[in-house]
Amino acid sequence: MTRNNFLAKVKRTIGAFFPVSPARRGACNNCGACCHIMVGRCFWLKDGDDGKQYCRIYPIRPLNCRKYPRTESEWVTRETCGFYFEQPKNEPLPTPENS
Ligand code: SF4
């Protein structure tokens, strides 16, 4: 399980200046889980009438919110998150034909 301790928060914040993993798939389902992982519930989080959660400053949200989950190792909300990371396919074993 990925930890969400102080060091992990610092790493996510700095990591947000780097690109999102090309293995990331899926989309945000507005579960709101990542809006609770920095300092408790985010001040800008709004509960929707549809049971989903929304950001009041979505167009200008911070970089680490914008890119979350950036990598699988930074992904601490996998129980409810709509994103996922594609696992690398196993390389075929070398054979006389392909080696
Ligand atoms: S945890 Fe994932 S699905 Fe939930 S709000 Fe954050 S990015 Fe969206």
Oligomer: single chain
Unreliable residue stretches: none
| Structural category | alpha+beta
Order of helices and strands: HEEEHE
Bound molecules: iron/sulfur cluster
The largest sheet is:
2 strands, antiparallel
Specify the overall morphology: elongated
Radius of gyration, Cα only, in angstroms?
17 Å
Give the tally of β-strands: 4
Query: What is the count of helical runs?
Result: 2
Biggest sheet: strands side by side, in what order? Answer: 1-4
The separation of the N and C termini measures 37 Å
Count of domain modules: 1
Proportion in β-strands: 5-15%
Task: Round the mean pLDDT to the nearest integer and report it.
Answer: 93
Helix content: 10-25%
List keywords for this structure.
single chain, 99 residues, alpha+beta, two-stranded antiparallel ribbon, two-stranded antiparallel sheet, 2 helices, elongated, binds iron/sulfur cluster
Q: How does this model look, in words?
A:
The longest helix is centred in the first third of the chain and has 10 residues, at 6-15. The chain has helices spanning 6-15, 63-67, and strands at residues 24-26, 45-47, 53-55, 83-85. The protein has a two-stranded antiparallel ribbon. A two-stranded antiparallel ribbon has the order 2-3. The protein has one domain (6-85). With 99 residues, the protein is an alpha+beta fold. It is 15% helix and 12% strand. The mean pLDDT is 93. It contains 2 helices and 4 strands, in the order αβββαβ.
